Fold this sequence. Notes:
Layout: E1 5-6, E2 9-10, H1 23-33, E3 43-47, E4 51-57, E5 66-71, E6 74-81, H2 85-91, E7 102-109, E8 120-124, E9 127-133
Amino acid sequence: MLAPKVFGRDLFDDWFDDFGLTREMGNLNRKLYGKHADRQMLTDVKEHEDHYDVEVDLPGYKKEDINVELNDGYLTITASKDINEEDKNKAGKIIRQERYSGTMSRSFYVGEDITSEEIHGKYEGGVLTLSVPKKEEAQKVEHSNRIMIEG
């Protein structure tokens, strides 16, 4: 059965919304992040004297589903999860599915002086924690491209 939609919103969303009590609370994030707000990588960044702690909520993911890379000063976190077709068929007909299946990614600029060996991470209880060292940017000496002409 196809669910009717009006302006991209499922008409049955309101029926499963605790009689509208939580609708306004949920719409706060939707106004800020769009209709896929529930699929965001919610992140906290804590500053310490010598490093930053980056904590990313990734509930329901396995360690193998998460990839962290450092390229050109950008720390990129990618997580992917697929629902197995065999599990779908064994579980019965899906009437409503709210759990996310797919790939999401988020990037943070950490500076070009940091190497991947200096970043440490752990994944426990659905939270990925990365420790990123602080480094002061090297003072760049301004070079002139102007060529001096003698004479």
